[in-house]
Amino acid sequence: MYIFSVNARAKKPIDGVKEGHLVPFIVYINFVDLYGAEQLCKVYLMRAGFMDVDIEKRKLVPSHLTTDPRVIAADKAMASAIKDGYLIQMFDE
Question: Is the overall model pTM greater than 0.85, yes or no?
Fold first, then answer.
């Protein structure tokens, strides 16, 4: 699993975000390689109505953490990404 710190620009008004506004995200992608995870991150954000996706930081989550029930129970975002394959979390500034 990879976790990305991402900025993307809204194509149209979405959930209180004005068109053209730059929005920060944390994106969890449950995928085996970095290149594929980055591409999925970009595609998921574009499908959600964002453009100019800029991945600022990348972090590999070690497999021993993604299989530890205590870690999964403590991190709801990770649990959701494991179950669904990804999770996108938008932040307000």
Answer: yes
